[in-house]
Design goal:
Oligomer: single chain
Distance between the termini: 36 Å
CATH architecture of the largest domain: 2-Layer Sandwich
Shape: elongated
Strand order of the largest sheet: 4-5-6-7
CATH class of the largest domain: Alpha Beta
Number of strands: 9
Number of domains: 2
CATH superfamily of the largest domain: PAS domain
Helix content: 25-40%
Length: 204
């Protein structure tokens, strides 16, 4: 990253994973960022901000041939004496798609990514801080994209209750969630109200 942006060393094995040669990496200092799926770039920002850790992150890459693959990365930030980020040392390997059952750990619907294990949510590549109930509600809606869920079904599955009451509690959670994941909460495109029925998550 500093003093000059660029790759110091790239393993020849990288070509099997992303299709680019080490020479192409050396020639384009920004290739490492360009490889990352736009909706997952927020995860890289977290790596740069957090303390050194051996915990991996699972992130999407776009190969040279246009295909999207999933990789597990272990990135260690390197800081200078002033505490500024000067480099990232990383290792990556291709992993099976974590959005597929029976071992689903990540749910991706449209521009929303839900890490079911880490309880993290990214909308359009930006990290979002959700309460426990908001996270559970989003995970439920995103598990059924395009399907209408009634307030009763939401209440029953999330709060283990058949009591819907006036529906205000459910509406309040929906409203709070929209403020965090919608591009414009005044005109929701992701969590759509189906009048007289309930709510649906738009997968587009």
């Amino acid at each position: 990253m500093k003093p000059t942006r660029g790759f110091e060393y790239v393993s020849p094995a990288v070509t099997r994973v992303n299709g680019y040669t080490p020479e192409e990496h050396y020639a384009d200092p920004d290739l490492g960022l360009k490889l990352v799926h736009p909706d997952d770039r927020g995860l890289l920002d977290e790596v740069a901000r957090r303390a050194p850790s051996s915990d991996p992150i699972v992130i999407r890459w776009r190969r040279k041939d246009g295909r999207t693959i999933w990789t597990e990365q272990r990135d260690v930030p390197v800081y200078d004496e002033a505490g500024e980020l000067v480099a990232l040392e990383g290792i990556a390997r291709e992993v099976p798609d974590p959005t597929q059952p029976p071992t689903e750990t990540v749910r991706v619907v449209g521009g929303v990514r839900i890490d079911l294990q880490a309880h993290r949510v990214y909308a359009d590549g930006k990290a979002k801080q959700l309460t426990t109930n908001e996270f559970k509600l989003l995970a439920l809606l995103a598990a059924n994209p395009g399907r209408v869920l009634t307030r009763a079904a939401i209440t029953r599955q999330l709060w283990n209750s058949d009591h819907v009451g006036s529906g205000h509690a459910c509406e309040n959670h929906i409203s709070a969630l929209r403020k965090k994941i919608e591009r414009d909460p005044r005109f929701p495109e992701r969590i759509v109200t189906v009048r007289g029925q309930g709510y649906t998550f738009n997968p587009r």
